[in-house]
Amino acid sequence: MPETLIRNADVVVTMDGARRELPGADLRCRDGVIAEVGTGLPSGDAHIIEASGCVVTPGLINTHHHLFQSLTRAVPGGQDALLFGWLQTLYPIWGRFGPEEIRVSAALGLAELALSGCSLTSDHLYLFPNGARLDDSIDGARQIGVRLLATRGSMSIGESAGGLPPDALVQPEAAILEDCIRVIDTHHDPAPGAMIQVGVAPCSPFSVSRELMRDAALLARDKGVRLHTHLAENDEDIAYSEAQFGCRPGQYAEDLGWTGDDVWHAHCVKLDGTEIDLFARSRTSVSHCPCSNCRLGSGIAPVRAMRDAGVRVGLGVDGSASNDAGNLVLEARQAMLLQRVANGADAMSAREALEIATRGGADVLGRSGDLGSLEVGKRADIAIWDVSGVDGAGAWDPVAALLLCGPSRVRDLIVEGRPVVSGGRLATADLAALVAEAGRLTARLMVG
Hints:
The protein is an alpha/beta fold.
């Protein structure tokens, strides 16, 4: 792999321990790793990327997504529903998916994320109709070239047993655990610089049993992989937990082994002070999904209180059926704005929101050792933002401008030293052909 030199950036936002911002700086990549950061670096034989007029940041990190939902945006009947009603509208449509739909929707969602500066995303696939497998999402990630933490989700309690999903979409718990072992053994790479990792992710307290939650945690820890689920997303979620389990979601999670350094929960909109303290003490992480929480009317997550207590927080775009976009830099902007709505204009700065989208995501996904900052020895995951256009015109502070005024699409995205977005265009796949393929599959889903 040839060297790459990113040269003459207006600002390099390192997100290192001192949060240094380096004006007029260069950055050299060699063999997928950051080799030098400084000014006036010699070009030698390196491939040159001119970054004048640009802000350079670490690649953004998305900590919660349902990539399969990219073919079910703006579905009538679910557009104005709360979480449970929205799910009941979408379940029958998702039940018509197969391997092709899972693969194409994953590639489409990953392309959209890449264009928004995202170099690593997690994915939560929790239904497997008509022969679909987690492998299909992983194939989509390899097509686009971004890093993927693919979590093997599951649902085991259908409507007939008091759960929310249709019986046709749940699986026997023994088969779920067996397939978790298969995908971990087949795809998980524990090494620094890994492009594909696997986690274990029962869907939610209202779609799996207590036994599966407990067994999944034991399996994940035996295999040395991370654990993920939804928790405390809205008032319906809290009411279900109290009615079915006699406790709040935080206690439910703790009782079943779902707290700790290797666990992250999506949403957590309704965590109370006791639960926030529990997560801080146990080093349990949270994926904050502000746009989805707004879209489904779930509320504003107490992110300010979480971070002040020491809880690790990352950002998630959530699925494209509940966002309905997959733009991670706009998600960071929304996170900043919602904390200001809830707590005042000084509650969260643009720089803090950008930190949550980079270092924060690396912490949540267990990748702070190799990702999340631009430092010598870290992997070369780099986003280059052109702030010389109309979005940034008139901006005095180009770093804050990324979230306060734009741009909302990246000019260049480098992952493991390789171009994924170049000059504002996807470099790894034919985007027009992918969009056409997605349109064909969506039209087929619409007719049943």
